[in-house]
Design goal:
This protein has helices at residues 24-33, 36-53, 60-75, and strands at 4-7, 12-15. By secondary structure, it is mainly alpha-helical.
C-alpha cells in the first residue's frame, strides 16, 4: 500500500515519496511533508533552473542555490523564477 502524507505544498493527503530522496534534515522534512506529486513539480522546476543557469552539481554554491530554491518552493509558497520561462496561460 502506498505511503500517505499530508502534503504541505498541495495542502491535502496524498501519496508520499517511497524513500528519502534528499539528504539531511531538509530531506527528512521533504519525506515527511511533501507528496510525490509536489516533488515531481519541484523536479521540473529544478531541471529548468539547472539548464537556465547552467548549474554544475559538483559546485557547492550551485547546490546551495538549488537547495534554497527547493525550500522556498516546497515550504514557503514561492515560485521559482527562471529567466525567459513563461508559465502556460491556464496557471498550472
Amino acid at each position: 500500500m502506498a505511503r500517505e502524507v499530508f502534503c504541505v505544498f498541495l495542502n491535502k493527503q496524498a501519496p508520499g515519496l517511497d524513500f528519502q530522496l534528499y539528504p539531511g534534515e531538509l530531506g527528512k522534512k521533504i519525506f515527511d511533508n511533501i507528496s510525490k506529486e509536489a516533488f515531481a513539480q519541484w523536479q521540473a522546476k529544478q531541471t529548468m533552473l539547472i539548464n537556465e543557469k547552467k548549474l554544475n552539481m559538483m559546485n557547492l554554491e550551485h547546490r546551495k542555490l538549488l537547495e534554497e530554491n527547493m525550500q522556498q518552493f516546497l515550504f514557503e509558497g514561492q515560485e521559482v523564477k527562471v529567466d525567459g520561462y513563461v508559465p502556460p496561460a491556464n496557471g498550472k
